[in-house]
Structure formats: structure tokens, C-alpha cells
Amino acid sequence: MSNVLYEKRDGVAYVTLNRPEAMNAIDEATNAELEKVWRDFAADDAVDVAILTGSGRAFCAGADLKTFIPKWEEANMLDVRKNFPHGLGGGLTRGQHRLYKPIIAAINGYAVGAGLEIALACDIRIASEKAKFGVFEVRYGLHQGDGGLVRLVAVAGIGVALDLTLTGREVSAQEALALRLVTRIVPSEELMQAAEETAHMIRCNSRNAVRSAKETILELIGRPLDDGLRLEALYGYSSLGDFADARARLAQFGKK
């Protein structure tokens, strides 16, 4: 795979978009490679967490419009319907969004257009101080179509979603933190270390609990309060299984 670098070390999958000459824009080949990567990540029981980043000065500059526009300007509604299970980022935005293993976005530079949609589809977003964000689709006669609006509203609220989407303005890492688009900002040279430390913290927890917690959160989105409380109870208590893992962890804690 040339457009996507994929490596596994110590229970962590490292996924790097590798089209620096195109600021890691997603073309058909890259999307197909990413789809294979996420399927492998989901199936490999030896890895628990993924770190997604980009090579060069961008995380991802969005869809490669040179190939994206010609593909869809001749499309019909059936083509659109067939595309529902195949969102950008190899399906991370839509289609493979039900991965219950956590994915950390290490945002090293520009995350704009569909690149922002992909970042928002990750579970934890850590940004370099040099990172830039923006809903740039509107600059080119488009708007988000791969989960960007849904997740932007969920993450940052309607007001922020309207502001960023209607203006198409660039957002600094510092403002992105204030808008809750990211959870942390770190110096550029410390970005991967911060992502790896976060991955390690996740891996120190119960695998079943982590995956069940992510699944539960995804299920709770948009639910009425009573439905959400029932689902949380159902998923939370059933995730304990035979209590063996909980008992072992409690015993280990007691020894400390």
C-alpha cells in the first residue's frame, strides 16, 4: 500500500495517510486502501487501538476534488444510494463507523473539508499546535455529505456547526480546542507521543469495558432520556460477562 501506511506495534495500529504531495487528499485508491485497513484492524484481536495521522504538513485536506467531482456530477440517485455504506476515510465516516475499537486522530496539520469529517469520525482528537481546521467544502460549491454535519452538531453544537459551515473559515488549533473539536493541543514534536500515551491508557483498561462503552455511546446518540437510561443499564451490566475480569482487576488493585 503506497497511499496508506499501516503498521502494528504493541497492540496499537498506526494508520498514516501518505499522499503528502496532495496534502493527503482522499482519492479512490486511498479510500479503497483505507477500507482494507479498517477491516483488518477490526478483525485483528492483537490490536486494541488505532492512531490515524497524516504525512507531511496535512492530516487530510479532504476529498481529491479532481476525481471526486467528475465521479459524482454524472451520478444518479441509485449511485448515491449504493454509496451509503461507503463513506470517505475508507468508510470511517459512514459504513465502518461502528468499529468498537477506539481510534485516535493525531492531527498534525490541515484537517479541512472531508479531512475534518474524518477527524470528527475518530473517537479522540489530539491536535498539533500547527493544526488547522475548516469546512472548506462551501468554498467549492459543496457541503458536508459524509457525516460532517451530523458529527459537528453532536460535538460542537448547532451554533458552531452553522458558523463553520456557512462561513468556510479557517480555525486555529487554539480555537478548535475552545470549540471542542479537539480535546488537547500539544507541540508538534510531541504529537505522536501524546497519541501513544492516550492509546496506552486505553489499553490499560478492560478491553470488554472499553469496547462496550464505545458501543453504548454510539447507541445513546439521539435517544430520549428514558430510552438512553435503559440502554446504558442493559449494555453496562451485560458488559461485565462472568465478572472474571472485574474480579481479577479488583484483586490487583487491592494488592496495591
Automatic annotation (TrEMBL):
Organism superkingdom: Bacteria
GO molecular function, one term: catalytic activity
Lineage: Bacteria, Bacillati, Bacillota, Bacilli, Bacillales
Organism: Aneurinibacillus danicus
Similarity comment: Belongs to the enoyl-CoA hydratase/isomerase family.
Name used for this protein in its record: Enoyl-CoA hydratase
